[in-house]
Amino acid sequence: MRRTSAIAVATMTAAALTLTACGRDSGGGDAAAETGKEISAGKATGTITVWAMGAEGEKLPALAKDFEAANPGAKVNVTAIPWDAAHDKFTTAITAGKTPDAAMVGTTWMGEFAGLDALDPTPKSIDTTQFFEGAQNTTKVGDTSYGIPWYVETRLVYYRTDLAEKAGFTEAPKTWEELKAMAKGMQDKAGAKYGIGLQAGGTGSWQTVMPFAWSNGAKLTTDDGKGYNFDSPEIKEAVEYYKSYFDEGIADKAAPATPTTEPDFASGKVPMFISGPWMMSAVEKVGGEGFKDKYAVAPMPTKKTSSSFVGGSDFVVFKNSKQRDTAWKFVQFLADPKTQAKWYTQSTDLPSVQTAWQDPSISADKKLAVFGEQLKTAQAPPSFATWEQVVAQFDTELEKVTKQGSDPGAALKAVQSQAESIGTGQ
Q1: 50-81, pLDDT tens digit by residue?
Q2: SS3 sequence, the chain?
Q3: 392 is in which domain, residue-wise?
Q4: 322 and 179, same structural domain?
Q5: Residue 78 maps to which CATH number?
Q6: pTM for this one?
Q7: Which end of the chain is less packed: N or C, by CB atoms within 10 Å?
Q8: What is the pLDDT of residues 317-373, one digit of tens each?
C-alpha cells in the first residue's frame, strides 16, 4: 500500500489489503500487560519460516542472508505473499495451527490475531523504547506488545514551492488557516485548477482526515480505551474544516477514483497534496530533472498541535513456533539500527528505530528529516478487531459530506451509532 498514489494512499480495506498502523490512543482495556519468556543466549540455530508481503517479501531474503552469515547454524526461509491473499492465508493458518515462525503483519490485523491467541508477547529483552512511540503502539493490544514495528511511514503536506512563491508565500503553512490560504492563493494567483488534492471520501479517506482530527486534539477512543469516540467536538471540527475545501472549490469533489496525483502535481494543476515518503521518488520521476528543487514537504498544520497518521508494518512471532528463540533473534536482528539503515537502502522503508535515522543514508536528506520529526507525534487508530469494519462506515459518510454537502455532525453520529452497534470486538 505504501507505494500507491498519494490521494488514495489508503485504498485497501477490510478485505485485508491494508498496510496501515493500528495502535491505540490509550490503554485499550483492562488486559494486564504480558511479556514473553526471555530469549536464550548465543547464536541462533535451526530453520525458521517467515512470511512477508508485497515488495518487502520479495526483498527480505537478501537481508536474511546477513542474519544467516552472523548465525551459521540458522536458516531463514522467506515466503513472499501477495497482499490481496495475505489476510485469508494468515487466518487459515491460525485456525489450522500451521502458522509460520515469524511474519510481517499488517498492523490493522494485530488486534484480530492477538485475540485469536496466535501471537507471542514481546520479550522484555527487546527495548521497546528505541522505536517511535506511535509506531510502538501499533504492536500493542490491551497493555501487551506483540512483536516490533518493523518500518514506518507518516503523512506530510507536499507543496510546490515555486508556485507558492508566485502566490506570495515563502514559508510552509504552519496552521489550518495558512494551509487553506496557500491552497487558495495558488489557485487564484499561480494557475492551479485546484489548490490541494484531498480524497473526497470513499475507501481509506479516514487516513487523510484523521491527521487533522489528531492535530485538533481528538481521541478516537473513550471509556479508558474501551469504546469508539467518533462524534467528539474535535473530530467534528476537523471534518467541517475538511469539508470546507470542497465547498469552496479548493479541492475537487469529482476527483477520479484512480488518482492522477503525480502528473497533476508536476504540471501545477494540483500543487498540494498529503501523502507519505514514497511519493518523493514518484513525483520526481514524473517531474523530471530538477523537479526535486521545485517542491517541499511540511508537517501537518497545527490547530492545537501537529500530528499525523503513522503507518508501516509490524513483525511478529507466532505462539506455535517450534523455533521460537531463533524467530525472536531474527526479529531482534531486524530491529538493530544498522540493519534498519541497510534495509532502508534496499527498500526505502523508513526505520522504526529512532537512532537509525542518524545514518548518513537518511540524515543527509532534508525532506526525510521532516518525516522523522512528524513521526515523533504521529498517531494510529485503536487496535480494535472491528476497526476496519467500522471505519468503512466513516469513509461512506465522509463521501456524503464532501460530495453531497451532508452535515458533518449528523454523519459522525451515524458512524458512532454503527460503531456502538458493531462493538470493539474485544
Answers
A1: 999 999 999 999 999 999 999 999 999 999 99
A2: CCCCCCCCCCCCCCCCCCCCCCCCCCCCCCCCCCCECCCCCCCCCEEEEEEEEHHHHHHHHHHHHHHHHHCCCEEEEEEEECHHHHHHHHHHHHHHCCCCCEEEECHHHHHHHHHCCCECCCECCCCHHHECHHHHHCCEECCEECCEEEEEEECEEEEEHHHHHHCCCCCCCCEHHHHHHHHHHHHHHCCCCCCCECCCCCCCCHHHHHHHHHHCCCCCEECCCCEECCCCHHHHHHHHHHHHHHHCCCCCCCCCCCCCHHHHHHHCCCCEEEECCHHHHHHHHHHCCCHHHCEEEECCCECCCCCCEEEEEEEEEECCCCCHHHHHHHHHHHCCHHHHHHHHHHHCCEECEHHHHHCHHHHCCHHHHHHHHHHCCCECCCCCCCHHHHHHHHHHHHHHHHHHCCCHHHHHHHHHHHHHHHCCCC
A3: 156-305+384-422
A4: no
A5: 3.40.190.10
A6: 0.86
A7: C
A8: 999 999 999 999 999 999 999 999 999 999 989 999 999 999 998 999 999 999 999
Q: Are residues 168 and 267 in the same domain?
A: yes
Indicate if 62 and 99 belong to the same structural domain.
yes
How far apart CA 58 and CA 80 sit, in angstroms, is 6
Say whether both 121 and 110 belong to one domain: yes
As given in the structure block, the three cell numbers for residue 377 are 507525534
Distance CA 302, CA 300 (A): 6
The three three-digit cell numbers of residue 104, written as one number: 510481517
Domain count, the chain: 2
